[in-house]
Specification:
about 325 residues; homotetramer; binds calcium ion; hydrolase activity, hydrolyzing N-glycosyl compounds (chains A, B, C, D); alpha/beta; two-stranded antiparallel ribbon; 14 helices; Inosine-uridine Nucleoside N-ribohydrolase, Chain A; globular; 8-stranded mixed β-sheet; Nucleoside hydrolase (chains A, B, C, D)
Chain lengths: ~325, ~325, ~325, ~325
């Protein structure tokens, strides 16, 4: 258990599938104090995402303390397709469509982020596990945002490896490449990409079996929301998937934020996102070769202790505390 | 030893470094009949490339039988930089600058390729281990070229992995992305990319030591031409290199052409090259996910038996025959 | 004098040079009720623009009734250069740097536009004589904005003619081509471009002489703010300028909004703005040929009664009422 | 009649419609010695173009002296559409499909241009009234071509005005924008664009009536080949056309080459062609503003004496000599 003050966190999410697990980690960990959840355009139709986030906060028992702020309902400029074929209709596996009755906060997510950052300079950590539209709009509104935020963790990009929505691109960056480009240009961030997700976050039969025996609400919820994605992965053409597995991009991002020594390897590179429509929309050039003039500014997580990450998740499902065994 | 008729081969090369080893394989193998060597803009200034090719053919004892045809001295449209920082000045390690006195053929390489293909429909194999300018120009001159050639092997591209000249691109495709795009669009080819080169063709200390003890002309030549590249690799930021190693993209391409069962894995994908200047110039989208509408047409070599490839090369250095142990 | 209800107007401006004349027209005409002035990134540093607008409203005697709302301080995504070489340092000819002491409204310009449009659906006219960043951001916040606004007039683009900041582009569209593209895609607008500005709005010696004899504050102000631009035009390489003339893009836009029968010719075309950086950044394709699939949606003002426009301006300088002779 | 030596001319054409009139001018004028006609991909299917050129040379009585060289059958890289909807099927109005039986030269057009230029350095004028594929390929083959040719006249581009195939582009540049870009970058040329064509080359009813009374083969031929284009223009959305008129881009280019004092205004600008697919494919940035860093190198014909041009054409139709009244 950490003796330090919990970090103050805002979580920006397009809540579907693994976003829920990231919300649970943020809500149930004592390492962070989750102050608000902001919703960004992404995986599934906006209203589903809002309800999914509220439902998950409620499941974690924090719905009264943590408000949901509705943000950008579309990318800055481009059109995109939802990923319901991955996460199931509605984003929670295809069978669960919450109607919580919980009210959203009045304030727009972008205004909320800007206000909180101005009121608490150097205090707030932002975790972005969605397309980066909200953060890009907050930056447009407040150019000093990079100085006002303490820390930014992002799930996005495919670092010199096969993407997931196209061969060139990962979904979050692809949905709003203009926002991704602007954010990667302006902020120093920690990046958890699709590559490390595939290498180090896969859950397989042993996890599924363990979870199936737990008989907790959280275990049950995990099995529900992974129903569609397991089928999707089983049929994937990606050689690294193509089996009954789940990927945990968003929850692994939160896990490394909560317990940074899960990170086995990381290095800081220049990153530039391709904002052009076409072949390479959303491609993230990560200059591992050091051949561009770009200043290295993005800490790329290259290797994560997958066993320990798995333990965190199982601890959470069984004991409601991701740091139970820590 | 193969009982079948040797395949009739034209080799298109920007002769520097490992191109020489590919020429040696083609000249010394009885599996192919090398009919001509065509020179394309690429690694080092054109006149060096021409002399390097002639010198290598002479070393293989075939300079009287195999003519060198000079081709495109620049890409179709774009400018580029030589790679002398990789291969040493002149392209043969930095100390060797041949002046053979051998005459080039009168015919332009592009005209030669077109004429030979028309005269021998369905008979000729083309191996391209250079930027694809000559082949693209031949296609422009003769739109039926895809039907006239029997087989095409290409070294180029970086298949969903880190490139070598930029993070997005491999050198041959980057030098002339317009040509690479046109060629990949029009022809069915076998592609040996930079990724499989790094994974399966690295030579290390054991090879260097073996070669050092051989005391043959070919062994000596290998050590000369790898002098600069070993130093370059030792200082590379690419995690897969960064040691005293050599890479054999061109010779591994020829080796797999000569002994196709070196190929452990291959699959046919849709490939599209990015011809735009900028971030992703020369990037090759290889649709492993099957998400584009493109028709799969390029057989991508995904895994090569590196031990056997090494044995071929050592057999050639020691015995002058790459198939000596075969 | 119009017997109809005055139109309710919000004016979005990057106040420098001719923007002031447009503000005066909007403030002094009884055909519109100017409800707010919003400031957008553009001609000169943002703080100058804000002060220039306040100074002009004060000159028109409406500073107490019409608030200034500060908006986007930078384009959506791209960088740009100020046009102080056209309008003089500070934007009012180079000698005048107002410090009005007037407070800006608390509300951000984008929030103001969105709120007013929601509160008054179908009631408000928006005149945009600046880069379109504020309007694009308002659209991002409120996707129904096209239905909520009654009418939109835009000064921008170069319709199949020479631009002013580059051969391909007019300044407002060039500064924020992403915003211009988004706005032209989403809204039905009336467009006053740089071409009709050059053809029909030039003021020459006779106007200058007339204004010089007037001895009114507004006449004096006009002479002050055109000081720099007259010198700039005299040295222009554009054959249509290259003399001691002024151009009135913004005031002519307002004039046609106030007295629509100034418009001699107009037609509705499909318009698409080039948002790519490079050669054609900010280029506006206006499909006069009807060859694209785009739906015609932009009413392009092709010819304006320049004499009558001149009379409006002279009436305003002399009598404080642009419709004095009408 | 000129007392100077006739200029030695190669004419590169995609023979359809007005190309024939340019061939007639070149063949019948004593100011030039037409040495060869090269055919480039363009207006109509290649075989039609070849036959149209031969037929026209035969009509001019020079088919025995001037050979037709077949060149590029497709652009360097991109696909395009024929313009048979302008010129009629086959390119000669829709009713005339010549079968001359004349043999083409053996040599490829590109090889012919390169060989002639090398053999006659500084002697040859090239007139290009087609997409610029042949010239770009010749440049690729012989980088010194800009020094070897004496003079180059090009019909192409739309100089800061409405194009003809798209709002942004003229047909020749649009068909092969890569070639156009390469040519405009490498060569000093005289450019006759679509704008000056529309402004100064229109033929109307008075010309048609004059030609109808002539009863010569050439007059008859003119009426035949303009049949389709007159109908096309009558229905054009371009305000400058939209009547029973013909445009003479190619013949006006040749006319100004033959009698340079037809040119009333010309200036030298930096020109850059947009080679990207999409909105502005084939757009020619002509830097009349002097705002780019590009070196002015292209002499743009801005105004032509249309009356005198008309007289040349009528002299040719009536007397077989375009300089009859000169
Ligand atoms: Ca997410
Ligand atoms: Ca090579
Ligand atoms: Ca303005
Ligand atoms: Ca033509």
């Amino acid at each position: 258990m950490s003796s330090t003050e919990p970090r103050r966190l805002i979580l920006d999410t397009d809540t579907a599938g693994d976003d829920t697990q990231a919300i649970l980690l943020a809500a149930l960990s004592d390492r962070v104090s989750l102050e608000g959840v902001t919703i960004c355009t992404g995986n599934v139709p906006f209203e589903y995402q809002v309800e999914n986030a509220k439902y998950t906060l409620d499941l974690a028992g924090v719905a009264d303390d943590v408000s949901v702020y509705e943000g950008a309902r579309s990318p800055l400029l481009k059109e995109y397709d939802f990923a319901e074929y991955v996460h199931g209709e509605g984003g929670l596996g295809g069978e669960l469509f919450p109607e919580t009755g919980i009210e959203s906060a009045d304030e727009h997510a972008v205004d909320y982020i800007v206000r909180k950052a101005r009121e608490n300079p150097g205090e707030l950590t932002l975790a972005c596990i969605a397309p980066l539209t909200n953060l890009a709009l907050a930056l447009q509104r407040e150019p000093d945002l990079p100085e006002l935020l303490e820390d930014i963790w992002i799930m996005g990009g495919a670092v010199n490896t096969l993407g997931n929505i196209t061969p060139a691109a990962e979904y979050n960056f692809w949905v709003d490449p203009d926002a991704a480009r602007a954010v990667m240009d302006a902020f120093e961030t920690t990046l958890v990409d699709w590559g490390v997700t595939v290498r180090d976050s896969l859950f397989e039969a042993d996890v599924f079996e363990a979870v199936e025996t737990m008989d907790t609400e959280l275990a049950e919820f995990y099995l529900t929301i992974t129903d569609a994605v397991r089928e999707f992965n089983a049929q994937s053409e990606d050689d690294s998937l193509g089996a009954d597995v789940t990927t945990q991009p968003d929850s692994m991002t939160l896990a490394t934020l909560l317990e940074p020594d899960l990170i086995e390897e990381a290095a800081t590179y220049y990153v530039e996102v391709d904002d052009r429509d076409g072949l390479t929309r959303g491609y993230s050039l990560v200059d591992e070769l050091g051949v561009t003039d770009g200043v290295p500014r993005t800490r790329v997580v290259e290797s994560v202790d997958g066993d320990r990450f798995e333990r965190m998740m199982l601890d959470m499902y069984r004991h409601g505390d991701p740091h139970y065994s820590a």
